């Protein structure tokens, strides 16, 4: 049986991580415990359940950000008034996340560190420009989510570091927001393709700013910055919608797997963007 530790402060967690570099951190365990049984691992476990400093959502006025503790449960994201006001896109994703029992166990930090291309919270976090706070005995640093997730199951966490907070710019003035997840069934499904979009029009009803993100169509979330830049300054008319959908299909990098084929995923990626832009056009 492996050793089990249950610290109640970030400092204690970091000290344990320093003493046991092979230890695994566990929040809700909805992904980790499944993998651990499969791998028959005996590495020490460090439970984060009692670390209050890693929990909760707060508006940090002096930094102009919304701070989400890494241990914050998905159910709390789904119910948070602060998230409804400042990052409703993430809240929509949280409400589509698994079953109620899973939402009450799974955490945003766990969803990040699993680094699955199908992670439900990831496309909204990319679209919202999330920063990830990493903490070690040497101090703290912040990096963008693009820098944090390196590939499927791979992150930029250095030895001795843990994720402590997810930081989002508050008061994002995007009039148009969309999150959609397509699975093989209506609920409790791993996404075949997911999509998050934010769009703002200027006074002339042209695209002023747009952030796009697709999940399950590449080794990491695909954001297609070239497509977003191409859309800026253009009217969201039918011609733009058709061209944008075609460019989206070219931008993603899906694979064939048991859940769907690459061609189907590519078509879905374009169709989800089309549906979002049609909402803007029909206002």
Question: Care to describe what's here?
Answer:
The chain has 283 residues and is an alpha+beta fold. The protein folds into two domains: 54-169, 2-Layer Sandwich (Uridine Diphospho-n-acetylenolpyruvylglucosamine Reductase, domain 3), CATH 3.30.465; 176-282, CO dehydrogenase flavoprotein, C-terminal domain (Enolase-like, domain 1), CATH 3.30.390. It is 36% helix and 24% strand. The chain has helices at residues 10-19, 32-39, 74-79, 81-86, 88-95, 100-103, 108-114, 122-127, 145-148, 225-231, 238-251, 262-282, and strands at 4-5, 24-26, 45-47, 57-60, 65-69, 131-136, 139-144, 149-151, 154-155, 162-169, 176-182, 193-201, 207-215. The strands form four sheets. A five-stranded antiparallel beta sheet has the order 4-5-10-6-7. α11 (238-251) runs antiparallel to α12. The radius of gyration is 19 Å and the shape is globular. The N and C termini lie far apart (59 Å).
Structure summary:
The chain has 283 residues and is of the alpha+beta class. It contains twelve helices and 13 strands.
Helical content (DSSP H or I, runs of 4+): 25-40%
- Look at the structure and give the mean pLDDT: 91
Return the domain count: 2
State the total count of DSSP E strands: 13
Strand portion: 15-25%
- Strand order, sheet with most strands: 4-5-10-6-7
Main beta sheet strand tally, sense and closure: 5 strands, antiparallel
CA-based gyration radius? 19 Å
Overall form: globular
């Amino acid at each position: 049986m492996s050793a089990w530790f249950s610290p109640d402060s970030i400092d204690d967690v970091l000290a344990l991580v320093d003493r046991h570099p092979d230890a695994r951190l566990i929040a809700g365990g909805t992904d980790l415990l499944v993998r651990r049984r499969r791998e028959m691992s005996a590495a020490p476990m460090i439970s984060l359940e009692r670390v209050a400093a890693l929990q909760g959502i707060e508006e940090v006025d002096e930094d102009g950000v919304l701070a989400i503790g890494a241990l914050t449960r998905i159910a709390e994201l789904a119910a948070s008034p602060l998230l409804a006001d400042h990052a409703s896109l993430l809240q929509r994703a949280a409400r589509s996340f698994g079953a109620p029992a899973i939402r009450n166990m799974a955490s945003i930090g766990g969803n990040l560190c699993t680094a699955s291309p199908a992670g439900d919270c990831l496309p909204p976090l990319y679209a919202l420009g999330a920063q990830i706070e990493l903490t070690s005995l040497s101090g703290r640093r912040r990096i963008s989510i693009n820098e944090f997730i390196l590939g499927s199951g791979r992150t930029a966490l250095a030895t001795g570091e843990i994720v402590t907070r997810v930081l989002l710019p508050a008061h994002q003035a995007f009039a148009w927001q969309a999150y959609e997840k397509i699975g093989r069934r209506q609920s409790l499904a791993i996404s075949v393709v997911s999509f998050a979009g934010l769009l703002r029009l200027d006074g002339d009803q042209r695209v002023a700013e747009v952030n796009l993100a697709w999940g399950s169509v590449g080794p990491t979330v695909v954001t297609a910055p070239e497509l977003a830049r191409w859309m800026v300054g253009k009217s969201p008319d039918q011609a733009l919608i058709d061209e944008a959908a075609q460019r989206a299909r070219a931008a993603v990098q899906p694979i064939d797997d048991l859940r769907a084929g690459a061609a189907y995923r590519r078509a879905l990626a374009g169709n989800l963007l089309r549906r979002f832009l049609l909402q803007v056009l029909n206002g």
